[in-house]
Amino acid sequence: MRERIVNGPWSVRAIAGAHVVLLAINVDESRWRDVTAGLLGFAIERSELDNSKVIERYWLRGMKKFEDVDRGISPGTPLPLSEHPAQTFQWGDYTPKPGRTYVYRVVPVRGKPKNLVLDNDSSVMIKIQTENEEAGTHAVYFNRGVAASQAYARKFLDPNPDENNPDSPQMKWLSRGLYEALLNFIGLASSPEHKLRGSFYEFRYLPVGLAFKRAIEAGADVQILFDGVSKDYASKNSSMASQADIFDNCRPRLGNKSAEKHNKFLILIENNKPVAVWTGSTNISAGGIFGHSNVGHIVRDTVTAQKYLDYWQRLWERPDLKAAVLRDLDEKQTQTLKNVPPKSITALFSPRELPTLDWYADLMDSARQIVCFTVAFTIHPVFQDILKKENNVLRYVLKDKSSPNDQDICRDRDLVLVAGSKFEKGEFPGWLGEQLTGFNRNLYIHDKFMLVDPLSDDPIVVTGSANFSQASTTENDENMLIIRGDTRVADIYFGEFMRIFDHVYARYIWKRLQNKIPGEITKNFLKPDSSWVEANFEDGPKSRRRQYFAGEK
Question: What is the mean pLDDT of residues 59-68?
Answer without folding.
Answer: 93
